[in-house]
Amino acid sequence: MAGDARRFQKGTGVYTCAACGKSTRSTGRCDNENVGLCAKCYDEGGLENEHSDSGGNHELDLEGKRGPHPDCPTCKEEVKV
Questions:
Q1: pLDDT tens per residue, range 35-67
Q2: CA 45, 50, 32, 17: dihedral to nearest 10 degrees?
Q3: Which of 25, 34, 51, 56 reaches 20 to 30 Å from 4, CA-CA?
């Protein structure tokens, strides 16, 4: 399968996510790879930080609507309790 575009290729910036342990690659966003996280873990970390800063009252749209964010891991965990 040499040259198969669906596989990780040597020299393409593949690394292991420090949070989930999955193999991932540089996204080109120049943010998550700097801290060693996959894009999903980086984005979830941002939502957890926003949750902490806002007390779970996330800004949900540009019109000022606020509340629990459907993708925030902390909001999801609070719903289970």
A1: 889 989 999 999 999 999 999 898 888 888 899
A2: 0
A3: 34
Contact 76, 69 (CB under 8 A): no
Q: How far is CA 71 from CA 14, 22, 35, 44, 58, in A?
A: 26, 20, 21, 8, 11
Q: pTM of the predicted model, to two decimals?
A: 0.69
Output phi, psi for 8, to 5 deg.
-70, 135
* Six-digit token string for 14: 């593949």
The pLDDT assigned to 81 comes to 44
Running DSSP on this structure, what letter comes out for residue 62? T
Q: What does DSSP assign to residue 36?
A: T
Question: Which of 75, 13, 80 minimizes the C-alpha distance to 44?
Answer: 75
